[in-house]
Amino acid sequence: MHAGDTLAKRNALVLAVAQALGGANPAIVVSLGGMVGQMLAENKQFATVPVSLSHLGLALGTIPAAMLMKRAGRRTGYVMGGSIGVLAGCMAAFGIASTSFLIFCLGTFIAGFYSSFVQSYRFAATDTASDGFRPRAIAWVMSGGIAAGIVGPQTVIWTQDLIDNVPFAGAFLGQAALALVAIVVVAFLRAPPVVAKSTVGGGRPLREIVSQPRFIVAVVAGLVSYALMSFMMTAAPLAMIGCGLPVGAAALGIQWHILAMFVPSFFTGRLIVRFGKERVTATGLILIALAAVVGLSGLTVWHFWTVLVLLGLGWNLGFIGATALVTDCYRPEERAKVQAANDFLVFGATATASFGSGTLLNASGWDLVNWLVFPPIMIALALLFWQNRGKIVVPA
């Protein structure tokens, strides 16, 4: 570790705690959104719309969140993001209490906006880090997702019946409370000061930056890793139930999946430092492809659980590796717009995958879901191989 990484290490720890709190936000929405939608929607076909809207809010919020932080700084931006999270939880709870499906959907959509701030924590951890520590800083923040996978479900369990005769509203008030605590945590962030435009200018045009081969490869790898994870993860529990397997087995499979997503973060950064960003990213993509191979080989509980574990491991290596690749593509004054462009593309694809996965599964079955994994994996691997051979120079 570089001698000057003391501040970066401190910030990474602060952001990891914030990740544990903010990462519980989507866990609560995903756990309860469909059930509340089933309870409130007149047309039960729209029951999962609240969950999909949270994904859409995440995609649409990335650019405004980045622009806000560019003008006001990371800490101020994250405090405002936490405030949005408080509003989202309160609005969703009010929607349940007033039996308004529309208000509840608005609450989950705003919760997606809050998630767009949370997702940028991984980039914020690199702001004060040396080149050598950046991958580890990203991995430290992502490790907060382990706690989020526990905090979110436990919040649901302990607060869903908090308000008499209004089921689940208490869980969304719990979501608001977690966002409130996150505001206190991010206040300890010591981000670099906002750089005045008059001093350095706005950097290169975005079109020039995003046309860099390295950026294209990074975005494709991150997009494929995250979108395919969402695509298969959404379909797998439904496929398990469709095969006659118990709901409890599906829920346990998702728990193993979440652990596989975040536990490797403790050593992913070291793997990147030792083996390189491209190799680690490629390994993650190969693991996702292997998950599809297992998915095509059988329909037992163990097949599905293995699919979900491999999917989580692959996402971790692929997404963290791709994120590290993105940090090579911009100068300090360019980071806000480049990070926003990356996340808009990645999470936009993820939202599309979330909307389409269940429909495709119902129409064509689990096998087709798995077969569709291979073409984007092959494209991403080919781009990584080409980029690694070219040894593209990182801009100064």
Explain what you see.
80% of the residues lie in helices and 0% in strands. It is mostly helical and 396 residues long. It folds into two domains: 1-191, MFS general substrate transporter like domains (Growth Hormone, Chain: A, Up-down Bundle); 205-389, Up-down Bundle (Growth Hormone, Chain: A), CATH 1.20.1250.20. Helix 2 runs antiparallel to helix 5 (101-119) and helix 11 (213-242) packs antiparallel against helix 18. The protein starts with 5 loop residues before the first helix and ends in a 6-residue tail after the last helix. The model is unreliable at 392-396 (pLDDT under 50).
TL;DR?
The protein is an all-alpha fold and 396 residues long. It has helices spanning 6-22, 24-40, 49-72, 74-97, 101-119, 121-124, 134-159, 169-186, 197-200, 206-210, 213-242, 247-262, 265-275, 277-297, 301-326, 335-364, 366-371, 374-390. Helix 1 (6-22) packs parallel to helix 7 and helix 11 (213-242) packs antiparallel against helix 12 (247-262).
Topology (elements, then pairings):
Elements: H1 6-22, H2 24-40, H3 49-72, H4 74-97, H5 101-119, H6 121-124, H7 134-159, H8 169-186, H9 197-200, H10 206-210, H11 213-242, H12 247-262, H13 265-275, H14 277-297, H15 301-326, H16 335-364, H17 366-371, H18 374-390
List keywords for this structure.
396 residues; Growth Hormone, Chain: A; disordered C terminus; transmembrane helix; transmembrane
